[in-house]
Amino acid sequence: MRNLTAKQRDVLDFVIEHVADYGFSPTRIEIQRSLKYRNQASVDLLLRSLEKKRFLKVVPKQHRGIQVLRNYQ
């Protein structure tokens, strides 16, 4: 996938896999813990960048508010 950093790709892959496995999106904390980021701000930054590039939509103040806009697998 062009124009994605390795970290962005990791987050996108994790979200896609989580939705496929469980039927709902992961929380920011689940992403943080699974990908071993030190803080949630890093995850938020990556999610915002993926949203800007139109890979995801992040619904503010919703617990599991991450939606994949396209199937990239």
Secondary structure layout plus pairing:
Layout: H1 6-22, H2 28-35, H3 40-52, E1 56-58, E2 66-68
Antiparallel strand pairs: 1-2
Spatial order of strands in the largest sheet: 1-2
**What is the beta-strand fraction?**
5-15%
The H/E string reads HHHEE
Describe the largest sheet. Answer: 2 strands, antiparallel
Structural class: mainly alpha
Number of strands: 2
- Helical stretch count? 3
- Rounded to the nearest angstrom, the radius of gyration is 11 Å
Shape: globular
Low-confidence stretches: none
Helix content: 40-55%
Measure the end-to-end span.
10 Å
Q: How would you state the average pLDDT, rounded?
A: 92
